[in-house]
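Input for the complex:
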Amino acid sequence: MQRRTFLSGVVPAMAGTTLFPFAPTPLIEKNDAFPGLITREKEPSNLEFPFATLKGRITPNAQFFVRSHFPFPKLDPDVWKLSLTGDVKRAITISYDELRKMPSKTVMATLECAGNGRAKLAPKVKGLLWEQGAVGNAEWTGVPLSALLEKAGLNADVLEIILEGADKGEITEEPRSPGEIRFARSISLKKALEANVLIAYQMNGKDLPIAHGYPVRAIIPGWYGMASIKWLTNIIATSKPFEGYWQTIEYAYWKRQANQPTLTAVTAVEAKAEIARPMLHEIVPAGKPYRIHGAAWCGEKSVIKVEISTDNGLSWQGVKLLDTEIPNVWRLWEFNWHVPSKPSTAGILVRATDSDGHVQPDKHDPDRRTYMVNKTVAMEVEIG
Ligand SMILES: Nc1nc2c(c(=O)[nH]1)N[C@H]1C(S)=C(S)[C@@H](COP(=O)(O)O)O[C@H]1N2
Ligand SMILES: [Mo]
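Predicted:
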């Protein structure tokens, strides 16, 4: 009993002495605490960022979502080599040390998996059911791909650059792979020559974590994540369109040309705004102000505006875009909601508009299959 009284606050104060010899640990606000990544698949490792915990513009490395199709390859930077071959004047090989000695650049870029939001499709579809957190934003440091292409010298007929990772395996479920394959994608030559396309070795100022491609990965800002090849080992210049597994069977959609649906590789990110808080069925206090916040991104385009509806899509108004504009980077946004005083439920929606005037749709286009999911989704909350 004696002890309990002491702990509940009766601390003997002594004149002239400091009560605590060390600084008390700052309290972590419960709402801002990061509870860890969400497992979408154990092996290969697929982990989602709990989007409700979105705090700053930069996603810390340990909180960044992980998307992998095969087990992580363990690569030793002393042995690792990057080869650049194909339709080039001189094939080259670069060691990790050589790459790190080349002039480098740091680029901020938002990465979103093309399957982000898939859990919100009904009826339920195949594939990993990502909710809102297969997206993150980081600063990447590395060598512009264009500098390496210049070293090798491209032939005049080069159309695409294939990027290949060291991870490999066999897809044994339909649609099966032709035996063991690597993870590889191509980017157009035009994209490859963009100044911000990097062969990166650092993420937020630290060497890449294994999960994010150690020792070296590609960063293709403005395109869905599948193009940013991790554990990169081969760069191949080609004069023909690449039609590998990961851009025909997977990560491809039906694009209509002259009314003919043509299977086309997924590339640039579509406009999207997401709500971090409130969460689904969160209880928001009636009659009080509530700060609704989240992030918005539009791939290669700028975020022109983000609108919000707190009445299930009946009326819309603009939110406040925070931060400055950086190409291919999300912007955080906020909206001070005057919560109605009557207890009820509310459906909150947000929609982004890009600099080409594209607004997020309210339905998912089936031609997109299970990729590029950017339809608006109501976040239902309880006013209580
Ligand atoms: N080698 C390799 N690169 C890869 C993948 C992969 O499985 N293997 N997954 C891609 C996909 S689909 C996405 S969304 C991003 C995810 O990057 P992150 O795991 O660093 O978030 O990596 C891409 N690069
Ligand atoms: Mo992805």
